[in-house]
Design a protein that fits this description.
This protein is of the alpha+beta class. It is built from 2 helices and 8 strands; from the N terminus they run E-H-E-E-E-E-E-E-E-H. The protein has one domain: Thiol Ester Dehydrase, Chain A (Roll), CATH 3.10.129. Its EC number is 3.1.2.28.
Length: about 150
């Protein structure tokens, strides 16, 4: 099995509903935050993606989301400090699927998945998928679950 990236997340008041329970949408923000933390841990950034391809002037590489889901098993409450575990379920030629598990004191609260596609982003044009640069894939590969 590949490496698991681990981080923690505090459930803040603004993440909750009137009952003090984390709103379902907060988990999607937390998944993205955990993905960014994983990238930073490898020396990558969502704003500075190494490009091995010649990009048109003003173009950049980005990883727009094409799919996101989350299954909820138990509520998270205001001021809970959640354990967040991230692995990569699939690292394709042009896409990556992150798997994120949320737990509290060993009890699983939710499990989510986010798929992103590597794209060339150019003003005034739709995103165009492109292969994930080798340098990026090499840094993500250790987190791929076997």
């Amino acid at each position: 099995m590949g490496q698991t990236f681990k981080t923690r997340r505090l459930v803040e008041f603004s993440d909750t509903d009137m009952a003090g329970i984390a709103h379902f949408s907060a988990f999607f923000r937390w998944m993205e935050s955990a993905e960014h933390a994983l990238l930073r841990s490898t020396g990558l950034s969502v704003f500075d993606i190494p490009a091995e391809v010649d990009l048109p002037d003003g173009a950049s590489l980005s990883f727009p989301r094409v799919k996101a889901s989350c299954d909820y098993r138990s509520p998270a409450r205001c001021e809970d400090e959640l354990d967040v575990a991230v692995t990569i379920g699939r690292l394709g030629a042009k896409s990556v699927t992150y798997k994120v598990r949320f737990s509290l004191d060993g009890k699983e609260l939710a499990e989510g998945e986010v798929t992103s596609v590597c794209c060339v982003i150019q003003h005034g044009k739709p995103p165009a998928s492109t292969p994930i640069p080798a340098e990026v894939a090499d840094k993500l590969r250790p987190f791929v679950a076997s």
